[in-house]
Amino acid sequence: MHLDDYQQLAARTMNPALGAERRLMDAAAGLAEEAGEVLGQVRKALYVGHPLDRERLTRELGDALWCLAALATALDVPLDAVAQANLQKLRKRFPDGFDRDASLRRADGG
């Protein structure tokens, strides 16, 4: 499946009663919420002794992906374009793959 296809299918489940600004906020807040749920699952596995529930973590990642797609849709940006821009940034930042020293001396801050 291509990201743009996923984005189009996911958009069908967005709340049509929300205006543009509310769709944007709903998607951004949802992304933060879902990222927190992912973090909670990993934290419990690493620091509390719970078994890592890969199935639940996979579902949470899917929820985060939905929110990311909804956010891109609210911005009228194709998800494929988001992914391509990110890969270009990473290629420029780490042309030979991740390098700790290159990461430490990054000037762009993010």
Write the layout of secondary structure elements.
Elements: H1 3-11, H2 20-48, H3 54-74, H4 79-93, H5 100-104
Helix pairs in contact: 1-3, 2-3
Task: Describe what this molecule looks like in 3D.
This protein is mostly helical and 110 residues long. Helices cover 72% and strands 0% of the residues. It is built from five helices and no strands. Helix 2 (20-48) runs antiparallel to helix 3 (54-74). The two termini are 29 Å apart. The mean pLDDT is 94.
Portion of residues in helices?
Answer: over 70%
- Residue windows where pLDDT falls under 50 for at least 5 positions: none
How much beta, percentage-wise? under 5%
What's the order of the H and E elements?
Answer: HHHHH
Structural class: mainly alpha
What is the 3D form? Answer: globular
Gyration radius over CA: 17 Å
Counting DSSP H or I runs of 4 or more residues, the number of helices is 5
What is the typical, i.e. mean, pLDDT? 94
Tell me the total number of β-strands.
0
How would you characterize the largest beta sheet? Answer: none
Give the end-to-end Cα distance, rounded to a whole number of Å.
29 Å
Short description:
The protein has 110 residues and is mainly alpha-helical.
Which features does this protein show?
5 helices; single chain
